[in-house]
Specification:
The complex is a heterodimer of chains A (201) and B (270).
Chain A (H helix, E strand, L loop, with lengths): L1 E8 L2 E8 L4 E5 L6 H8 L5 E7 L2 E2 L5 H7 E4 L20 H7 L16 H14 L4 E5 L7 H16 L4 E4 L3 H6 L3 E6 L2 E4 L6
Parallel strand pairs in A: 3-8, 3-9, 6-7, 7-8
Antiparallel strand pairs in A: 1-2, 1-4, 4-5, 9-10
Chain B lengths: L8 H7 L1 H12 L5 H28 L2 H21 L9 H26 L7 H32 L1 H9 L4 H4 L1 H21 L7 H8 L4 H34 L19
The chains are: A alpha/beta (201), B mainly alpha (270).
Amino acid sequence: MLAIEGLRSDLVGPVDLAVAAGECVTIEGASGCGKTRFLRAIVDLDPNRGRVRLDGRQREAMPAWRWRRLVGMVPAESGWWADRVSEHFERPEALPPLLEALGLPPDSPDWEVSRLSTGERHRLAIARALCLEPRALLLDEPTASLDAAATARVEALLRRLLRAGRPLVVVTHDPAQARRLGARRLAMREGHLSAMVEPPS
Amino acid sequence: MNGYLALSYLDVALAALFLLIAATVSLLARLGLERRLVFVSLRMVVQLALVGLLLKALFTLASPWLTLFAALFMLAMASREVGARQQRPLAGIWGYGLGATTMMTAGMLITVFALTLQIRPDPWWAPRYALPLFGMILGNTMNGVALALDGLHVALVRERVAVEARLLLGHTRFRAVQPVLVRALRAGFTPILNAMAATGVISLPGMMTGQILAGVDPREAVKYQLLIMFLISGATGLGVLGAVWGSILLLTDRRDRLRLERLAPPRERL
């Protein structure tokens, strides 16, 4: 369980949120409302205050780099620092099943980063984060750059993580995606979270 | 100093003849360079004349405090220059302070080292030796530090997403910035490496040329030049390492975050 209490950073909060094991929470909201900032605050990438725990383990009790191995985050824009894809992966042996699940060919680690399409980059970034086997995962618009088939594969992978008991927080613009993930839908407005109120149909 | 041939002011003025010819050509051909050419050379005359007077006074007074004050003034100018040469210096006091601290530490350490252990004038701080030596060391260290910091800050801004990707994958701040850091260090070391590679083959260093013209045995001049080159590269190395390391510490924090808001906002590009 990912427990967030009184989390606030520059533009966010205070936010309280508890995501149970195997639960998916989606966050929707206009751009600039603080969704990305909220995810960044959870993984301690922006200066912030508040308490965050994962399965009872306090974030401040460990170095930030170790916390980020427990709570993974896949940002909307993936970053690459070497020429070849494989240089970005720490545990290559964990990779083949992930590549298959994401619909990427087995030789994709040998590709050059500069020749990847946006969608390939993004799926490889998801694989890269999952290689570390994080205990919870935050995803910022995980399928915004993907076509329908790739989106279905990513969502299937996320459902597998949920069945394995991982808490997930997904920022999305797509209400249908929230339904497909069986998610608890939250809305963010000016840095504050609230339950999504469905407009009457 | 046996073979030293003194110059008269007329000799110096005659040397400017060809500059005047160039300015005239520029005027006739409407190149528009003549004003700048004349202005810059007049400014140079004034600057150097003043420096000559100032050094003469400092040498005559031979005061340790005045010598130190002159060195600190040079340091302040160099720090300002390091700040001005960066597209994105650190915000606030560190914009000048980081260059000043590292150049002062490296420059003074190496200068004092050379004065007390190798050149050994009496007294060791004699301004005739201390100030030109410190100036040469400072000028080169300044070049290296400015290039390294400029490269580091520009690269961190440009590659923020890549650095943060590594932080998100559980790398420490030092591991995450490592490729950027290596490139910045290379940039800082390049001028002094190039200078060492080219010296004596492509160009005779100015100081050595000066000594030879002043009648010093070329072998003695070479010894001095080697000493200076080693001191300069040592100071540049220390200064660049210190500045880059300090900047990384200031632009990240203990929770392994990148803190680019600590850079000054981008300048208007001209």
